[in-house]
Amino acid sequence: MRLCQLLNDVALDRDTNAVARAIRTDVGLSYKLLRCVNSPAMGLPRGVKSVDQAVMVLGRNELYR
């Protein structure tokens, strides 16, 4: 149910802080998001340490996908 609410928040273009807060409530989802953003495929010069940064780096379209 939380995942559906999160997808609705992203689709309805809710505030980025609200989206990040919703992700932080689920530890597994937070871990998967940070693992995805910090993967070598992203090619970032340094690691992302917070969910807020990960949401900003990934972007809404990728987050929804």
Give a topology summary.
Blueprint lengths: L1 H10 L4 H9 L2 H11 L13 H8 L1 H5 L1
Helix pairs in contact: 1-2, 2-4, 3-4
Features:
mainly alpha, globular, 65 residues, 5 helices
Account of the 3D structure:
The structure is a single chain. The chain has helices at 2-11, 16-24, 27-37, 51-58, 60-64. The protein has 65 residues and is an all-alpha fold. 17% of the residues are buried.
Number of helical elements? 5
- From the alpha-carbon coordinates, what is the Rg to the nearest angstrom? 11 Å
- Oligomeric organization of the protein chains: single chain
**What structural class do helix, strand and pairing data support?**
mainly alpha
Quick synopsis:
It is built from five helices and no strands. It is mostly helical and 65 residues long.
